[in-house]
Amino acid sequence: MTKRVYNFNPGPSTLPLDVLKKLQADLLNFENTGMSIMEISHRSPEYDKVHNDAIALAKELMGLDDTYKVLFVGGGASTQFAYIPMNFLHKGKVGAYVDTGTWSTKAIKEAQNFGEVHLAGSSKDDGFTFIPRPEEIQFPNDAAYLHITTNNTIKGTQYHFVPETGTVPLIADMSSDILSHQIDFSKFSMIYAGAQKNLGPSGVTMIVMKENILDTIVDGIPTMIDYRTHATKNSLFNTAPTLPIYIVKLVLEWIKDVGGLSAVETINRAKKDIVYGLIDDYPDYFRAPVRKDSRSWMNLVFRLPSEELEQKLIAEATSAGFIGLKGHRSVGGIRVSLYNAMTLEGAEKVAEFIMNFRKNN
Ligand SMILES: Cc1ncc(COP(=O)(O)O)c(C=O)c1O
To answer: CA-to-CA distance for 334 and 87, rounded, in angstroms?
Structure first.
């Protein structure tokens, strides 16, 4: 048996073991081609099936109909920070953004290079420790779009509601919570996510786009940046990142096999309850900075009584086979990332480890 650790890395992060095994089994001779998936053409029938299956599965799991397109592009989620205003931020309009820290701050900064930004809400003054409440999110009703970051990987906050935007298109960076729970995806005009947390490996970004938003794209932008290029060519205008897309397909199949988003949500709820339960049981020892209504199910952040103890916990956890518990360097502390592929057993084991650490320290 190959050694595997409990991997709590924030991204790239743990993948389902079944997916890795399938990948390994298929590697040398994919679908009887005598080649690996990496060595066949992105225009071959074998790859075509992988590509279209991944798209169909994503739509099925999200409950979306044919008014939505699923795109696969390179460049990471960060590239979308610029592509969104380049495509949708017309002169005379504003791009509305909710600032919930690091990644949304970066998205805002990038949009300011292309047009006018309206700050629709922010938790900056409180160290990004909460998600603004629905009534605190305000924007003009002719805004080009409202952009939110549904899960804030570094600050450990997550939206537990979908903002109502009327006729203003809602755009979301779902990089770190996509397909982790049930949500009405049809409320969004565009969703994007770097694959490397809940969808697969790094190297591909999945975009889900309502077709009608394509009609509003600014003309005259470079071909590869114009979403219409990828939408009309089924993400095969140029060489697609075939291996990452193949692995995304395997992950989507795994989600379906587990029982779809309702089953995934049940497991994710149990996982986060175990860890937050422990934190809440000992408020004199653990300090959770995030407001309770905004707590992330994916990235659980907390502090110990001192930085020395935090370093000690991280070191002892690593030796014990619990990897990736160090909070982001910008915030410090402990971060337990419980993405879809982390098992319930993993959450139980890490909670037990943290509980024993508290007893001994
Ligand atoms: C919420 C969120 N958005 C965007 C990014 C940036 O993604 P990428 O590295 O794919 O550009 C990250 C990376 O961790 C993230 O967590």
So the answer is: 38
* Residues ≥6 apart with Cβ < 8 Å to 99: 105, 108, 119, 121, 122, 123, 124, 128
What pLDDT, in 10s, does the model give residues 153-164? 999 999 999 999
Burial class (CB in 10 A: 0-12, 13-18, 19+), 260: middle
Most informative mutation of 79, 103, 248 for ligand 1 (most atoms within 8 A of CB): 103
> What HEC string does 338-361 produce?
CCCCCCHHHHHHHHHHHHHHHHHC
From the CB of 78, is ligand 1 less than 6 Å away?
A: yes
Q: Which atom from ligand 1 is nearest to the alpha carbon of 194?
A: 10
- Whether the CA torsion 181, 183, 186, 187 is positive or negative: it is negative
On whether the CB atoms of residues 40 and 28 are closer than 8 A, the answer is no
Specify the 3-state DSSP secondary structure of 191: strand
Residue nearest to atom 7 of ligand 1 (CA): 77
Nearest-atom number in ligand 1 for the CA of 149 is 1
The pLDDT of residue 2 is 81
CA distance 163 to 57: 26
276 pLDDT band, cuts 50/70/90, is very high
Tallying the residues shown for the chain, one arrives at: 361
For residues 15 and 103, give the distance between their C-alpha atoms in angstroms, rounded to a whole number: 23
pLDDT, residue 56, reads: 98
- Among 178, 121, 123, 181, which Cα is nearest to 155's? 123
Q: Indicate whether this model's pTM tops 0.70.
A: yes
